[in-house]
Design a protein that fits this description.
By secondary structure, the chain is of the alpha/beta class. The protein has one domain: 4-Layer Sandwich (Purple Acid Phosphatase, chain A, domain 2), CATH 3.60.21. Strands 1, 2, 3, 4, 5, 6, 7, 8, 17, 18, 19 and 20 form a twelve-stranded mixed beta sheet that branches. Strands 9-10-11-14-16-15 form a six-stranded mixed beta sheet. Helix 2 runs parallel beside helix 3. It holds the Pfam family PGA_cap. InterPro entries: Capsule_synth_CapA (IPR019079), CW_Biosynth-Accessory (IPR052169), Metallo-depent_PP-like (IPR029052). This is CapA family protein. Belongs to the CapA family.
């Protein structure tokens, strides 16, 4: 089972802004098992981008699939694609708002599905920007588009149920947590509205997913220090603690995927488990002074079942540099040696800065665009 995860994806209308983040995917190949891809990308959230709007704001007025068309072949080619939806959706007719309290067009959900995404993490520091109604609108829109989700919930029962997906013969559980909510308190009587990042809880949830039948457990973490390429002390500490968790001698978590930082961060194997500290941004429209916010990585991890058939392990790890080309027209594209070579080199340097190449991480081969 293989998964690809683009970095932060941000989309928005001409006035409102929205951003998203990408997560990692996995692919599994084994005799008699059909290979499966998991791809991830960040959906609209904080920083945003322009979307074609054939008229005034209103239901179905924005086409975000055009922005993501440059990476659709990578995403859609996966059997399972996972994204991060950072900001809540507003009503179909708006208003759509930007920082500090975001409301993104619900049309984003259809754009994500059209690009090939299957599930989104929704726990972020902006999840509560529009209160419980924003969570409800976001999850309703994702449901309507056929995109699964994890990290926020409309009920206590939903909060207890991780996103369950199938890929390449594997049962995959997708969990999602955020370091905080920008000081916005959890809604009264709804402590389950968004998953807050606590290592003990993450491990307990991962173990519960295993007991429920998950072959692979993917964890999305909204964490770290914005605009900082190096993982901070908390990221390093939590990565060690989470990857060290074991039951019966086997890891409880198979992959950690970080979002939030806006810039690409390193990949690293910790206690034998791959950690992507931060994918950076996939879709964003930062000003020239913050050009790094328009850059990110896409990750693909290939999982194969163990010889006994009772546990899947990573057999290949890959990454691909990505870039928000502000255009016009605005599009998310892969950054190759023949196109945006400076972006590719910056992303490669960040991704490999903690020795991931020695652990076997390779750059995905993509045709020159």
């Amino acid at each position: 089972m293989s998964a690809i995860a683009p970095g932060t994806t941000g989309t928005g209308a001409t006035a409102p802004r929205a951003t998203g983040t990408g997560v990692t995917g996995t692919r599994a190949t084994a005799p008699g098992v059909t290979g499966a891809d998991v791809t991830g990308a960040r959906a609209p959230g904080a920083t945003g981008t322009r979307a074609t709007a054939p008229g005034a704001p209103g239901p179905g007025r924005y086409d975000f699939s055009r922005i993501l068309s440059g990476v659709k072949p990578v995403v859609d080619g996966a059997d399972l694609a996972i994204c991060h939806m950072e900001t809540p959706y507003g009503p179909p007719e708006g208003p759509f708002t930007g920082y500090p309290a975001f409301q993104s067009p619900p049309d984003v959900a259809r754009g994500l599905r059209a690009t090939g995404y299957d599930s989104c993490s929704t726990a972020s520091n902006h999840t509560l920007d529009a209160g419980p109604e924003g969570i409800r609108r976001t999850l309703d829109a994702l449901d309507a588009a056929g995109v699964r989700h994890a990290g926020s919930a409309r009920s206590a029962a939903e909060a207890r149920t991780p996103a369950r997906l199938r890929a390449g013969g594997a049962e995959v559980a997708h969990l999602s947590y955020t370091y905080g909510t920008n000081g916005i308190p959890l809604p009264e009587g709804k402590p389950w509205a968004v998953n807050l990042l606590d290592p003990g809880r993450v491990v307990a949830d991962a173990r519960a997913a295993r007991r429920a039948g998950a072959d692979v457990v993917l964890v999305s973490l909204h964490w770290g220090t914005e605009w900082q390429q190096e993982p901070d002390r908390q990221q390093l500490d939590f990565a060690r603690r989470l990857t060290a968790a074991r039951t019966g001698g086997k890891p409880d978590i198979d992959l950690l995927i970080g979002t939030h930082n806006h810039v690409p961060q390193p990949y690293e194997k910790v206690n034998g488990t791959w950690v992507v500290y931060g994918l950076g941004d996939q879709v964003a429209s930062f000003v020239p002074e913050k050009y790094r916010g328009n850059e990110g990585s896409m990750a693909r991890f290939t999982f194969a079942p163990a010889p006994k058939g009772d546990r899947w392990t990573v057999s290949a790890a890959e990454f691909l540099a990505g870039h928000s080309d502000l255009g016009p027209p605005f599009r998310v594209v892969t950054a190759t040696a023949g196109r945006f070579p400076d972006v590719r080199e910056r992303v490669r340097k960040a991704v490999l800065s903690r020795g991931a190449a020695q652990d076997g991480l390779k750059e995905m081969r993509q045709p020159e665009g």
